[in-house]
Design goal:
Structural class: mainly beta
Order of helices and strands: EEEEEEEEEEEEEEEEEE
Distance between the termini: 114 Å
Number of helices: 0
Oligomer: single chain
Strand content: over 45%
Length: 196
């Protein structure tokens, strides 16, 4: 075999999404095909679904000159690429107050808001919104944790933190924190009487 070429398998990175990823791309790292020759098929080995890294390898190629296979005219060196899955970005926070049931007039907010993981993803700014019914959300903007004083009604209040991602390798995510609010005057006094 006279002509030498080096084929490098492609590399790619994803955020974890529970699916199996493959990447079928290659480049000719050194050398070149002779005039009129073309790579017509490529066989790959390598897939990844869990967080970590694995090799992406081109295991064979077929080189044709028109309708004639000429692969045997080449000395082919194969170099691996890398497939990487990073932990998906996650948001976390602590409710303040950290109680399921609170009185109206209480101020609800979040503390310790953190965004972890997502290396290899482009995560845009974390945004905040709140709701008193879980469907109609009022935006509180980007980057500033809201502090909201609940009104005197019995309902559930919500604060939502979320982020968007740029690119195909990252899914937007959100976390919703809830408080059950009871009015200040919602106090039941049980009067007990007895016959004398």
């Amino acid at each position: 075999a006279g002509q030498s070429i080096t084929i490098l398998a492609g590399s790619n990175t994803w955020c974890y999404d529970g699916t199996t990823h493959e990447y079928h791309e290659y480049t000719i790292e050194s050398g070149s095909l002779l005039s009129g020759d073309a790579i017509t098929s490529v066989t790959y080995s390598g897939s990844i679904s869990e967080v970590g890294s694995v090799a992406n390898e081109v295991t064979s190629v077929t080189i044709m000159h028109g309708v004639t296979e000429v692969t045997s005219n080449y000395t082919i060196t194969y170099l691996p690429g890398t497939l990487t899955v990073n932990a998906d970005p996650e948001l976390a926070a602590v409710r303040v107050p950290d109680d399921d049931i609170i009185c109206s007039g209480s101020t609800i907010t979040l503390s310790g808001v953190t965004l972890t993981g997502g290396t290899g993803c482009t995560v845009n700014d974390v945004s905040y919104s709140h709701s008193i019914n879980g469907t109609d959300w009022i935006s509180d903007g980007i980057g500033t944790v809201p502090a909201i004083t609940t009104t005197n009604e019995s309902t559930t209040w919500y604060i939502r933190i979320s982020f968007d991602c740029s690119g195909e390798n990252c899914d937007p995510a959100e976390e919703i924190y809830t408080w059950q609010v009871i009015p200040d005057n919602d106090v039941v006094i049980n009067a007990m009487s007895s016959d004398t």
